[in-house]
Amino acid sequence: MATHLDLEEQEQLDALKHFWNQWGNLITWALIAVLGAYAAWNGWQYWERRQAGLASVLYDEVDRAAQAGDVARVERALADMKDKYGGTTYAAHAGLLSAKVLAEKGKPAEAKAALAAVADKAPNDGLRAVARLRLASVQIGEKAYDDALKTLSGSFPAPYTALVADRRGDVLLLQGQREQAAAEFGKAYQGLTAESGDYRRLVGMKLNALGSDPDAGAKAGAAS
Asked: Cβ neighbours of residue 177 under 8 Å, at least 6 residues apart?
């Protein structure tokens, strides 16, 4: 009986050896690949968290400098942020905040550069859209109307299309193109919801000033 069991165990051992000789290397490398990928993922997560933590410290510096109105300090902190953490959300928010301070302090060129960097490198469409809208506002302030229209061209995320139309209407009105401006204001008015409140009423006032009924499109749709 013992001999029979010994033979079975030997057969199983031989089968295991044969299997391992045939597939052992493949299994080993597959295991190494899986474990390596897991380690790499954990490493990447740690690096991302560390980068975000360091970027948040620099953002706080930008914020403090902005509150103090210290333009030179704002510019230094923003340059450091862009150099080290340019693709992070913190860098995008720092760029938007810095641009506001720079524009208020009479440095439109620097404000435009900060906004252009956010529009180009921000990690999501929403932040890029906000940067483009604010860049257009600075360009309008400089009477660079063609540049503003170029900034407002192209696609924007759906939640921003009404705001973009309103801003385009402002530019066209300043250029004396009243009909085209009214068309853009009409798009903005129809794209804004009742929850937009005062902003929607302001767009309606622009349309009224141009001799257009803000609700004409909706009334026509209801009548048909």
From this structure: none
Q: How far apart are CA 219 and CA 4, in angstroms?
A: 95
Give the pLDDT band of residue 119 (cuts 50, 70, 90). very high
Q: Are 163 and 128 in contact (CB under 8 A)?
A: no
Chain position carrying tokens 């980068």: 51
Task: Kindly indicate the confidence band of residue 51, based on its pLDDT and cuts at 50, 70 and 90.
Answer: low
d(CA 13, CA 9): 6
Question: Which amino acid belongs to residue 191?
Answer: G
Contacts (Cβ under 8 Å, ≥6 apart) of 125: 157
Name residue 97's amino acid: L
Who contacts 207 (Cβ-Cβ below 8 Å, separation ≥6)? 182, 185, 186, 189, 213, 214
Q: What is the distance between the alpha carbons of residues 76 and 193, in angstroms, rounded to a whole number?
A: 41
